[in-house]
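## Example pair
The file below holds two records. Each record gives the amino-acid sequence first, followed by its structure token line.
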Amino acid sequence: MRRGSLTASVLALPALMAVAPAQAHPHMWIDGQAVLVFDGQGRLEAVRERWKFDEMFVAYTTQGLADKQGQLSPATLDRMAQEWMGALGEPISHYFTRVAVDGKALVYGAPRDAKVEWDAGRKAMVLAFTLPLRQAVTPGAQGVDVDIIDPTYFVAYDFSAPGAISLEHAPAACRADYRPPKPLDAELVQQLAAVPADQPDLPEELFAITKGLTHRIRLTCP
């Protein structure tokens, strides 16, 4: 695994799992933010996201890359952003984000504004990027659904912080209602934790549950 490669660390995680705690699922925690961006005609044109990674992932992915002051070079941060966005663009993940109208997924254009932000003092790392829709859409009363999920549950998201979901340049009538996934009960948590850390795929009965752990934003503009 190339250090800093999200291809391995998010989609397969083999090297990270070797140094991580025994619990296999989830294996990475992300505090997320999502901004639904409108154009001048009152149409949804993009979803802008910020993912703040957990301390364990940050410690691993920056190992050996920081200078004596703990700084990462602009070239290193740029390379991380390019590699990670390339990995996230694969069909298996597709940025872990789905925008749909009446159950039909909308198509993205090329992602833009991708960058990795690094705060050496706080050891905090954020991946920020924008997913523009190939064709902007007017939400209307029928609404637009934005779903954020890793169905394999290697990555667990949290959008509970104040202001984690917001609108930009939206018409006054628009609103975004956030629905978090249903919490897992203690028995399911134990079953997920018992999955071997080097097993990339969940058993079917567990996958049937985790693929429903969707963070859903229902956007309506009546």
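Second record, same layout:
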Amino acid sequence: MTPRTRRRAGWAVLLVAALLCGLGAWSYGQARGDRSLSYAKARDAALADGKRHLATLNSLDGENAKRVDAGLRAWLDSSAGPLRDQLERTRKADAKSLTAAGDTARSKVSSAALTALDERTGTAELIATVDVEVTPRTGAAGTQRKRFGATLARTAEGWKIKALTAIGTGGGR
């Protein structure tokens, strides 16, 4: 290969590399500004926060008054709007009855999905199945499977649950 041919080949390789870099930068810019990517990020954040807060609202350590109070505080931190207002109104009565019962509940969201997301208004709808392991003060522990529908609201701290509804299993005829 002559020096002139080598030089042309070098320039050709450099030109192809520059074109590929430009194409990569353009593609990245398109994806970064993509509305569907923004929507997917909001959806993922709402789903993750909703699952975490739903598990919190179904968990409580009733061993003593201190733990019950911490659990009720966690419930307030997981809620917003009407649900939070209701939990604040009933907090003293809840603390008394939960401390007296002494039951402990630990929950895990086994499956969940968003059925609606409105980024403009900052609301989302979630459906979920929650496995709740209940350990009574006396007696044997057991696991309950529950289904919920939840309305989420976007707050400064992330998505929180503003309404929660138990969903029946539909097993009756």
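Notes on the second record: The first helix runs from residue 3 to 32. The chain has a mean pLDDT of 91.
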